[in-house]
Amino acid sequence: MALPRTRGGAIALAGLILLLASQAAAQNAFTAVSEATNPSLLLFSSALQLSGVSTFFNTTGRNITLFAPSDQALLAALPLLNLNQTQLVTNAVLMAPVLMYHAFVPATSDASFPAGVSYYNALNTDGSISGNQLRVSRTATGGLAISSIGSDASVTRVDLPNSGSTAVHVIDAVLFPFYPSVYAAIARTSALSTLSTLLSSASSLMAKLKETTAVYTVFAPFNAAFTAALAPSGLNMTVAQLAAQPALLQAILSYHVVPGFYNSSSFSTNPVTVTTLTGQQLTLVKDGASLVVKTADGKTSNLLGARDLSCGFTDQGTFRATVHVVDRVLVPPPIASVSEALALRTDVNTLLAAVKAEGSYATAINSTTFTGTLLAPTDSAFAALLAANGSISAAALLANTTALKKILDVHVVTGTPLTVAGLTNGQNISTSGGATITVVKTGNATQLKLRNSVATIVGVEVAIGSSATMIIIDGVLVPSGVSISTVGGDGGAAAATAPSFVLMLWSVMAAALLLAFQRMQ
């Protein structure tokens, strides 16, 4: 039947042409994502194009399932990916493994997922099947929950239209094929549940391991290792009893944490010596087919399996930290005195020189019965003190034993030993010299203030015997009566600045604008 030659007929004809064109358009996973609304998948669509994997999803006939994160999910994931504006737009190819981790074979509609739990192997960037699994669970209410290596998500919309032979479902979180942090690796690994429980009682250490920019290697004893270590033939205590002894707990857990990145390939027949957070050393060596960690007193622990638990995404598409599951709890050799604790470090030489020059604390630091805490400024802290007052040299400071005595007095706390986790915001600490230090806690940072001087605590305390601790600080506390001005520490090693929300939003807008520009070509 011919359409009338009227303006209305022309509009009807145009509408018919558009309808036929849309019906003829290829339907595939990328089409479904690009045309999705409520919720919008614009950012995911942009990411697929910018990363170079859109061609794979824009091919008809694929027999795949794709979990598509909403715009809100991608925004929330950017801090965990540690990607800033430039990295997101210019190095978007780094996102390709993450994006492909959201897909698997075969195409599975909502109705086709079985009750209970099912597992699917995600895809590699070339479309082949990887060894990384996704766990899909049918919830009590009939919904779908997804567990990946490093995150969990819920399906919020199923079976998007225009998907052709594929199945596309919307999810509320990005699925990570790695662990965003060291702590996430521990908490999400069932064989490390005892270690995870103990970390909850070591809050300062746990906070460090939660940082997505932290560079650590952790030798994580599996549950059976803790069972053996806590048995009557070992420490002879329960998990709860160990958790209730903060100094011992910190010493044991910190002894398993090494600053720096040492994956399985770091082990060779040539032993590598590394320094733990306690300041004590471990040796990494390959012995036949075994990868072994050795303590200074000859104890050994073997890595279980060759696979590293990769943590922390970098702007190079690599990882900044790793966790190794080991078969034995490493108990650090006991540190008997403050002087032994100081000798384990290479950054407290000025403090040692000050103690030697002043003289009155020489006996205390070598005593095995000292009860209390030494607040130990680093060499850089003393350098900052001297730099703040150009008229005094290190030699002049060490020669002024009266000033030294007053400075050392405010760095010694007698009585019950302090722990970093036990410090509270606003707490007042009385020092050996009678001065009062105030604790200021801001986020994960803990500072000590005395008059105009400020020092930030670096790391966790070092247990010394059963009655003392040492806490490293990045500034020198200056009491009244000492005419040396100082500037507080900067918190130790600089941490990468986390991208602000505005920056993340701008990076997303930049990606979307780039996509829009490409579509106009």
TrEMBL record:
Domain FAS1: 28-175, 179-330, 335-477
Pfam families associated with the record: Fasciclin
Signal peptide coordinates: 1-26
UniProt keyword list: Membrane, Signal, Transmembrane, Transmembrane helix
A GO CC term attached to the entry: extracellular space
InterPro entries in the record: Adhesion/Biosynth-related, FAS1_dom_sf, FAS1_domain
Name used for this protein in its record: FAS1 domain-containing protein
PROSITE patterns, A to Z: FAS1 (PS50213)
Transmembrane segments: 381-399, 454-473, 493-517
